[in-house]
Amino acid sequence: MSLTPSEQLVALSDLLAARRESILTAWRKLDRADPEQKTGRALTLGQFLDHIPPILDAYELKLRSRPGGAAARAAEVEKEEEGVKHGLHRWQQGYRLKELISECGHFQICVFEELGNIFAGHPELEQSTRLEAHRQLLHLINDIISGSAGQYERMQQAEAGGRVRDLMRALADVDEIERRRATLIHQAVHDLNSDVLGVSMAANQISRTGLAETDRVESAGFLQRAVQGLNSMLGELMDLARLEAGQEHREVAGFDAGSLLADLCAGNRPFALERNLFLNAKGPARLPVEGDAEKVRRVAKNLLVNALKYTESGGVMVSWGEEKENWWLMVKDTGPGMLTEAGTSLADGLQEATASAKESDEKSAAIKGEASHVLPPKDTATPTRPSRHQPGEGIGLSIVKRLCELLDASLEIASSAETGTTFRVVFPRRYRSKS
Q1: Which of 7, 65, 66, 116 has the greatest CB tally within 10 Å of its CB?
Q2: Would you call 112 exposed, middle or buried from its count of C-beta atoms within 10 A (0-12, 13-18, 19+)?
Q3: Which three-class secondary structure string do you get for 278-292?
Q4: What is the number of domains present in the chain?
């Protein structure tokens, strides 16, 4: 007796589930064969797959479900949620938007070809069943691209001044987008104006006749520090401008990450002692890797200097090590945490991405009997402290994020007022392309 149309779709769902590993393996192979897909090559298998298995679960459930029924609606919700999480991970992992969309296209090809193999081996499946499967596949890929690209764009807007909760609403409100993009620049100008005012006051003080020598020395010292602050701020703005304009490129070569980081810590230890802080370093003395040593140094220095600058008591721990195909750098301080307005900062977006990555990585690691190394999320039960703008902090974090994208590195953050802030950067240990 032949199967009904509904029974045929259930049978197709079962056949597709049995070929899950074949689909995922073919997808990874196809994506890595694409010369334009560079970022994904640095990811572990668990990081690469992230939320795709649950998306396939939703697709199979949709094939099995009665149209318009509760199960079908649940499948749609799951597809949307997992698609958003997928985009969040890819943003955190340094993907470019073009890579994200191409990756979705590769996934569609692999599922389409697997469906073709199933239909070739099961001629009893009718044409209407095949058409419905292909129709649902188009909906699936559309949902992935829409959800992933939408979340990716939302995170990019967060870097410019705030987290956009509803992408469609934000796109319809151009003024709001421009206001958010201008936030970082506004903060930078505010910082510059403050430093310029300080320089002007100190200069006027020094020029006064009859000024006591001790006051003159004090004003001269303040003037020197203010000028140094101005130079530093202008340098950071220039660095960020070059990165956002695509004028910097990575130059891959072998180097010793252990030696580089140990030297960086040794060079900044006097600054820590001056502030009565500890600066501890922990990691292998030698850690041979590939990468752009100068840009890695800039990432580490930016995180370390900011940690020392905003930590009032306690100190900073810098650690590093290797992890399968990657190596990692961690900077942990005992400071006040990232005191930014909840829901509007780049740091907030990174913490959300880290929490989502932790959830996905724990599932993948549990299957293999391993432990997840992604930073644990911040304690959401911790009371929110008053926001406070820390001059230059937003610019520095944006520079680190841009450098991580250039280096195909994943940036994680966990921060709270009670435990301080921890940054973890995961770099590829080897690059397949020297470009």
Answers
A1: 65
A2: middle
A3: EEEEECCCCCEEEEC
A4: 3
Token reading at 401: 């994020």
- In this structure, which amino acid lies at residue 195? D
Whether residue 434 lies inside any domain: the answer is no
pLDDT band for position 208 (cuts 50, 70, 90): low
Residue identified by tokens 């810590």 is: 265
Encoded tokens for 288: 């041979």
Do residues 378 and 292 both lie within one domain? yes
Tell me which of 243 and 323 has the higher pLDDT.
Answer: 323
Could you tell me if 220 and 269 lie in one domain?
Answer: no
The 10s digit of each residue's pLDDT in 295-341 is: 999 999 999 998 998 899 999 999 999 988 899 999 999 988 875 54
The sign of the CA dihedral 262, 264, 268, 270 is positive
- Top pLDDT among 206 and 422 is at 422
- Quote the pLDDT of residue 369: 74
> Is 63 in contact with 128 (CB distance < 8 Å)?
no
Query: How long, in residues, is the chain?
Result: 435
327-381: pLDDT as tens digits: 999 999 998 887 554 444 677 777 777 877 777 777 766 766 777 778 886 654 4
271 with 407, same domain: the answer is: yes
Q: Which of 336, 337, 297 is nearest to 320 (CA)?
A: 297
Between CA 55 and CA 367 the distance in angstroms is 18
Residues 6+ apart with CB under 8 A from 419: 334, 337
Look at the pTM and tell me if it is higher than 0.90.
no
Same domain for 197 and 273?
A: no
State the chain's mean pLDDT as an integer: 77
CATH of the domain at 74: 1.10.490
| Domain of residue 275, CATH code | 3.30.565.10
Tell me which residue range forms the domain holding 69: 5-159
